[in-house]
Amino acid sequence: MRWKGVLAAIVxxxxxxxxxxxxxxxxxxxxxxxxxxxxAEFKTLPAFIETASVVDQTxxxxxxxxxxxxxxxxxxxxxxxxxxxxxxxxxxxxxQSGWVKADWAKKPYLRLTLGKASxxxxxxxxxxxxxxPAPLKPDTCLLAVEVDTPSAQVRIEQLAAxxxxxxxxxxxxxxxxxxxxxxxxxxSDEEQGIAxxxxxxxxxxxxxxxxxxxxxxxxxxxxxxxxxxxNAKPTTRAGGGIESGxxxxxxxxxxxxxxxxxxx
Length: 264
What we know:
alpha/beta; seven-stranded mixed β-sheet; three-stranded parallel β-sheet; disordered C terminus; Cell division protein FtsQ
């Protein structure tokens, strides 16, 4: 009886090892699939996307990205859908210390702009823990206005990857709200509510060496495409991207294009 027990343990243990090996191989295959798709897609990205505003449906922007979009990139505003997933409920931004949350918000979106601390819509709790980077002044503040419906020209949206069986890849994409046209898309293995490395990285500047391809930070790569109409624009991207930009169409309304361009 004792030997039967040992043999049973060996058989069960062997099955467990096989299942574990299969799971590891499956994850590796998924990751390799992301890399292959992303590298190919990266070569099709435009040099830039010209827009005056963006709504992030994924709460995936980091502080440096948000601040640069509102200052260096001269966007009029950035709207963020307040996260509902349990892992990051009420999150609006990602910082190196973790999610930045708007527990006080009652509406589904925040419209963020840069202004002075004396403004009525100033939210001191949204200030970066390290302070405002130069050349922003010490009395700078993130102004937050709650809105029911976003009015940005483009939106960043996500189809989350699925890591439980059956596994499947996802994507993040930038969509022209007015036309519903997908302007840029990258395959991703990001699960819902998970932020990969790059969340707290800064966007490139015109004199920077073009970014290398990082297929585990698609939100950063896509945000890096956005430039305000008044800004000088890059002409090339890393990975042999298209040497031209895309301008968004004149704004109509978010409601008139509700559901366009999204597979979520």
